[in-house]
Amino acid sequence: MAQARRRPATSRRTPTSRRSGGGGGRLRGIAQGIGGHGPWWSKVLRWFAFLAVSGILAGALTFFILYRAIAIPDPNADFLTQTTKVYYSDGKHEIGSFANQDRESIPLSEIPASMQAAAIAAEDRSFYSNRGIDFKGILRAVRDNTSSGEITSGGSTITQQYVKILYLTQERSYTRKVKEAVLSIKIHNQLSKKDILEGYLNTIYFGNGSYGVEVASQTYFDKPAKDLNYAQAALLATVINSPSYYDPYADGAKERIMPRFTYVLDGMQKSGAITAEERDKFRDRMPKVAKKKISNRFGGTKGYLLDMVKNELVNDLDFTDSQIDGGGYKIITSFDYDRQRDAVAAVKANRPDKKELHTALVSIEPGTGGVQALYGGPDFVKQPFNWATERTQPGSTFKAFAVIAALEDGYGLQTKLDGNSPITVGKGTIENQGDSGGSSFGSVSLERATQKSINTAFVDLTLQMGDDNVEVGASKVLDAAVQAGIPQSVADAISPVAVTSLGYAPVAPIDMANAYATIAAGGERAQWFVVDKVQRSGETVYEHQVETERTIDEDVAGDTIKAMQAVVNSGANGTGSNGRTICPTAGKTGTATAGDDDDQHVSSSWFAGFTPKLATAVMYNRGRGNEDLEGYMIPFFGGQIPARTFQAYMNPALEGTECGTFISPGNIKAKKGTVYRAPKPKPRPTRTTPKPTPTPTATQPTQEPTQPTTPPPSSFTNRGSCEAAGYTWDTGVLGGRCVG
Q1: What is residue 5's DSSP assignment?
Q2: Domain locations in the chain?
Q3: Would you tell me which of 154, 249, 413, 735 could form a disulfide with 438, CB atoms 3.0–4.6 Å apart?
Q4: With a threshold of 0.70, does the pTM exceed it?
Q5: Are 405 and 480 within 8 A, CB to CB?
């Protein structure tokens, strides 16, 4: 039977292919346009595959070239030899240095297995399986940190961290990251995991000047690393991630440490290093650390300067502890070499030899905010508490801000105020005491109230500015303080009450000096600073830029200066004449009291003042508990020892410099209140004797000369003149009072 002839399959035609200009024809044309036969999309996929393979090959070739080209440098050639040094403003005289590395290397056999496990749990959980870098770990870290809202894990392996510390710099660049990746793989190929872990734990920074686990163990737990328990090991591993943030000695340390500490414990438990029961024992508490040790490099008065430099670098300029302690920087500060010596000498010459007496002196350059000199205590190692930055009651030095507030509010220096003593505000009684001598002054001007530091007059001023609402008037005083330079956070902590202008609430001497510098600069405020420049290898990596802002009107500043000049330039009529210097000087005394109405005592004694080019605050107190100065520091008034300390510093500090001039007074005319009119002086009464019996030769009667009357007791403000006039000095009143 004959077979039917078949048409070749390739010759079959579909209905679609018969249609002239149909869709199939268009697709075939596109595919043919790409080249070759078959569906167009398969050709596109082949091209993508080709490009992907080419990219992989190119990447592999690039990595191979880099792997061969990048050599492992000498260990520690850059890292171990770099010490950061700190200099005075001249860049020549050295203040001190930050230790590069305090380290004692030990073999891995002396590092407990729990410490090894803790470091791996904290920094690189795939340490024993990765090849120096871990791309999955990087992605996992991004996921975990994003989901938790906290930085609990990082992407760098232990090998990468070891390479960065041991061979590279802290530079942040893609070039360094590429070198880090290549060197990590090289180190992985050349060293065992145990060698890498040993080197890492002996090299990594644990904060507080401790490099390596042995020194860290001694620093935080007073024991060698081999004696660490698993909880202590977990805490040390926690610190590695950020020694500043997880510093066990910092305020609020537990709140910051616990999330990551728990993360480390969980990792140790998952790896089998500890049991679930051991993990749970410390999930809500951290092991106790030893008392903080302070290096002798911080000994003496310079220690306070070094501590302030480091705090500013870390807290304000975003340098890390490891960069500072091992970065090889040259730090030039604002501290003036000669003025710092003058400050220390002035305190030593005037401070009474009293063990519990604390002194602060801060000097700032108006217009720049640069801290020129600072005395925070005699020895930072023995007393690591900086009284120049600690807040204490400033007393009447705070009245300067009430003067500013009044002038801004429409009052003038001749505004009439009630200086009688005592006065009652609400249920409280306020008296004139301290530097004013405790007298009752009657009606006085604002300028006179400033000159004599009359408490009751400033309370009356506060009432006037608030239209008898104390809170409103006191808030204006606080606003003026912030304008001058008192931090907003400090002002927010002060309640606006009747005695706000009397300085009842604590302020740091450094902030008071900066606020007075604003007045000296005619109302131009600058933020205080101590780090002027940071250099490395001759290149400047940071330089402070002076930024000023006009926060007080020139006329207001000029009149405030005029009132404050009367404090020091009016002899016995001013309370701060002991603070007068070789240059035009303005200032204010302050003698603060603490305690309730039944137990008032002197808590601190101040003098703050300025010349056109230098502002300084001096403070004396007897401790953080506001212990009584009366009978301990004699005399205790701010116009005495503090003012003399101010003068003893300022005169040599200003000698040989141009004094400059203050801006002119604004002579602001009061729009509010009543203008004070000084009463016309009354003629002194005379005392005459009866006419004598005439003698034959006398043609005119004789008369005794007029005798002046004895001044009233209230006119004597010190004991010597009071008793010389035949009156009695009443010591039962704070500050003393002359009575008939």
Answers
A1: P
A2: 100-294, 395-654, 712-740
A3: 735
A4: no
A5: yes
The helix (H) or strand (E) run that includes residue 446 is: helix 446-452
Parallel, antiparallel, or unpaired for β 210-211 and 102-103? parallel
Spatial neighbors of 204 by CB under 8 A, at least 6 apart, are: 161, 162, 165, 211, 212, 213, 240
Rounded to a whole number of angstroms, the distance between the first and last alpha carbons of the chain is: 158
Q: Are 614 and 650 in contact (CB under 8 A)?
A: yes
Is 503:474 a contact under the CB 8 Å cutoff? Answer: no
Q: Which SS3 state, helix, strand or coil, does residue 359 take?
A: strand
- Cα 414 from Cα 137, distance rounded (Å): 73
Q: Which of 326, 287, 315 is nearest to 84 (CA)?
A: 326
| Main-chain dihedrals φ then ψ at residue 423, nearest 5 degrees | -125, 155
Angle of CA points 702, 704, 709, to nearest 5°: 160
Q: Tokens standing for 536?
A: 């490395």
d(CA 694, CA 684): 29
What percent helix, strand, coil does the chain show, rounded to 5?
45, 15, 45
CA distance 116 to 114: 5
Return the closest-CA partner of residue 159 out of 100, 206, 204, 210.
204
Q: Which two tokens stand for residue 729?
A: 């000095």
Q: How far apart are CA 530 and CA 544, in angstroms?
A: 9
Rg (CA), the chain: 39
Spatial separation of the C-alpha atoms in residues 230 and 212, rounded to whole Å: 17
The Cβ-side half-sphere exposure at 162, using a 13 Å CA radius, reads 30
CB 632 within 8 A of CB 623: no
Q: Which residues contact 295 (CB under 8 A, 6 or more apart)?
A: 99, 209, 381
Q: Which of 381, 393, 370, 678 is nearest to 517 (CA)?
A: 370
Strand 531-536 versus strand 330-333 pairing type: antiparallel
Query: Looking at per-residue confidence, does 599 or 665 come out higher?
Result: 665
Per-residue pLDDT at 83: 75
Nearest Cα residue to 263 out of 142, 154, 159, 136: 154
Collapsing DSSP states into helix, strand and coil, what is residue 659? coil
Residues in a beta bridge with 461: none
CATH architecture of the domain with range 395-654: 3-Layer(aba) Sandwich (3.40)
φ/ψ bin of 287: left (φ > 0), alpha (ψ from -120 to 50), beta (otherwise): beta
User: What's the pLDDT band for 724 if we cut at 50, 70, 90?
Assistant: low
Cα gap 304→344, rounded to integer Å: 12
Does the pLDDT value for residue 146 go beyond 90? Answer: no
Mean pLDDT, range 50-64, rounded to an integer: 56
Which residue bears the tokens 């009695």? 728
Taking the C-alpha atoms of residue 584 and residue 589, their distance in angstroms, rounded to an integer, is: 17
Q: Residue 320 and residue 534: Cα distance in Å, rounded?
A: 14
C-alpha span between 230 and 382 (Å, rounded): 33
CA–CA separation, 302 and 396 (whole Å) = 30
User: Can you give 373-391 as a three-state secondary structure string?
Assistant: EEECCCCCCCCCCCCCCCC
- Tens-place pLDDT, residues 201-211: 988 899 998 88
* SS3 at position 415: strand
Q: Write the single-letter amino acid at 445.
A: S
CATH number at 100-294: 1.10.3810.10
At 736, is the pLDDT very low, low, confident or very high (cuts 50, 70, 90)?
Answer: low
Cβ neighbours, 10 Å, residue 272: 8
